[in-house]
Amino acid sequence: MYNPKSHKAEEFISHEEILDTLKYAEENKHNVELIDKILEKARQKNGLTHREAAVLLDCDIKEKNEEIFKLAEQIKKDFYGNRIVLFAPLYLSNYCVNGCVYCPYHKQNSHIPRKKLTQEEIRQEVIALQDMGHKRLAIEAGEDPVNNPIEYILESIKTIYSVKHKNGSIRRVNVNIAATTVENYRKLHEAGIGTYILFQETYNKESYERLHPTGPKHNYAYHTEAMDRAMEAGIDDVSLGVLFGLELYRYEFAGLMMHAEHLEAAFGVGPHAISVPRIRKADDIDPSAFDNGIDDDIFAKIVACIRIAKPYTGMIISTRETEECRAKLLHLGVSQISGGSKTSVGGYFSPMPEDENSAQFDVSDRRPLDEVIRWLMELGYLPSFCTSCYRNGRTGERFMEVCKSQQIHNFCHPNAILTLKEYLEDYASPETKEIGLKLIDKETKIIENEKIKETVEKDLVKIEAGERDFRF
Q: Of 119, 340, 367, 379, which is most buried with the most CB atoms under 10 A?
C-alpha cells in the first residue's frame, strides 16, 4: 500500500503507485483541460502532487510546454530572485567497500589510485578553497568503515571549520556520506553540519539492487530510509537526488517527487534541496553502457517540472554539466551551482597527474571560480556565498515557513550582496571586481526595506575597511 506517512521505503516509494502514476500521466498528457487545471494550481505556488507533476512532465503540447517553462521561470524569480549560491565539493577519501557499477570508487576497481586525506592535507585543501573565495563546502567520502569511519568524518569537519586563512573561512559544511545510523546522524548534527546529502541513485528497487550488487549499499530499504533517520536525529536540512541515466527518467522523477512528499508528510518539512546529476564518464565507467540517458531538452523539462512541483526547494546543478547546459537551466529553477570544482581526492592543493587521477567523474565545466562568478553576473545573476540561514537557525521548518511566505528575500538578497562584496575585495580579478561593484550598486538600490538598505550600505563600507562576516 502506498502511504506517504509510512517510514517503510516500499510504502512511501511504492512501485505500484509509480507505475499507476506513469500510466495516468501517459493517458492524460494531451488532456488540455486537466493540464490547465494543474497549471492554475501551480500558479498558487503551493506545489503539486507527484501525479500532477508527472502529467506536466509527459505533456508534449508545444504551447503548454511553453507555459510550463514560463511558469518555472516566474516561480524561480518569486522565491529565489536572481541569486545563485556557490559551493565546492571536497573529496576526503575514495576508499569504498561497495560494488556500485556506475562509480569508479567501486571495490573491484583495482587500478584507480586510492587516497585518504590526512587532517593536515585537509587543512591544505581548505586553504586552497578559501584562496579561491569559497565559503561553503560539500564533503564527500566513499563508504568504508575501516578507512572512513564516522570518527574520521567528524574530525575532518572540525578541521575544516578551524581553518582561518587570511580573510577566508568555511562557514557551512554540507555532508555527502553513505547512509548511516541515527546515532551517527546525531553526531553529525552536533558537529554543526549544514545539509545532509544523499542521492538515491535510482528509486526502482529491482534496478537499485542490480546496480549495487555488493556492499552495504545493496540494502535498498536501509538506503532509502536514511533521510528518516537523519530527521529523527535532528538534521532538518536534507538534500535528495537521483542519478539520471540509470533508470527510465519518468520513473525516477515520480520517485523523487514521492520522496519529497514523504518527508513533508512524515516530518512536516520537505527537502532543503534537490540535485539532478546525470551519469558521466569516469575511469572505468562508460556512460554509454547505460541506456537510459536523457538529452538536454528532457533535462530542462525535468528541472522546470521540479521547480513548479516544489517551488520552495533549492535546486543544485554541478560541474558535471557544461557551461551551455548550466546557462539554460539557471533561469528554470536552479538556485545553487558548484564552481572551480575538483572531484578527485586532494585535487585542489596538489592535483594528481592525469594518469593517476582519482576523480569520481569527469567535470564538464572546468572554469575557475572567478570566471564562473563573472559569467553569472554577465548573465544577470547575483552570485552569493551566503550561509546565514544555517548559522542563524533558519533551517528545516523555520526556513520553509520563511521561504513559503516569500519573505526569504529580506535575508538572502542583502546577504548575497554582502558576501559578493567580500569576494570582490579579497579574491576577484580586476575585471570581475569592476563588474561586481556595478552589480552591487544596482542590487542595493532596489532593496525595498529602507532600514535593511541603510544597514547594507553601512556594512559595505565596513567590508571595504577590512571587516568581514556581516549577515541578516
A: 340
- Of 43, 76, 109, the one marking the end of a domain is 76
Beta strands in 225-292 (DSSP E): 238-241, 273-275
C-alpha closest to that of 236 among 180, 195, 181: 195
The span from the CA of 22 to the CA of 255, in Å, is: 11
For the chain, residues with pLDDT lower than 50 are: 355
> Could you tell me if 198 and 53 lie in one domain?
no
Tell me the per-residue pLDDT of 88-113, one tens digit each, with 9 for 90 and over.
Answer: 999 999 999 999 998 888 888 888 88
- Here the cell at position 17 is 503507485
Q: Are 222 and 275 in the same domain?
A: yes
CA–CA distance, 22 with 7 (Å, rounded to integer) = 23
Contact 286, 245 (CB under 8 A): no
Q: Are 240 and 232 in contact (CB under 8 A)?
A: no
Whether residue 308 is contained in a domain is answered as yes
* Residue 201, phi-psi category: left (phi > 0), alpha (psi -120 to 50), beta (remainder): left
Note the pLDDT tens digit of each residue in 39-56.
999 999 999 999 999 999
Q: Closest Cα partner for 297 from 324, 336, 258, 257?
A: 324
Instruction: Tell me, yes or no, whether 364 and 285 share the same domain.
Output: yes
Q: Which domain holds residue 439?
A: 396-464
- Give the per-residue pLDDT at 286: 64
Residue 240 β-bridge partners: 274
What is the predicted pLDDT for the residue at 182? 98
Residue at which a domain ends, from 389, 417, 442 = 389
- Residue 471 lies inside a defined structural domain of this protein: no
From residue 128, alpha-carbon distances to 74, 83, 97, 165, 367 in Å are 37, 25, 29, 9, 16
Phi, psi of 448 (to 5 degrees): -80, -35
Q: Are residues 303 and 252 in the same domain?
A: yes
Same domain as 89, residue 56: no
Are residues 254 and 309 in contact, defined by beta-carbon separation less than 8 angstroms? no
Q: How far is CA 323 from CA 306, 316, 420, 427, in A?
A: 21, 14, 21, 22
314 within domain boundaries: yes
Grid cell locating 20? 499507476
Cβ atoms of 234 and 200 within 8 Å: the answer is no
* Tally of CA atoms within 13 A in the half-sphere of 350 that contains its CB: 7
Q: How many domains does the chain have?
A: 3
**C-alpha distances out from residue 113 to 99, 237, 342, Å:** 16, 33, 16
- Shared domain for 90 and 213, answered yes or no, is yes
What is the pTM for the complete model shown?
A: 0.94
Residues 104 and 207 in one domain: yes
**Pair 379, 340: CB distance under 8 Å:** no
- pLDDT at residue 285, as a whole number: 57
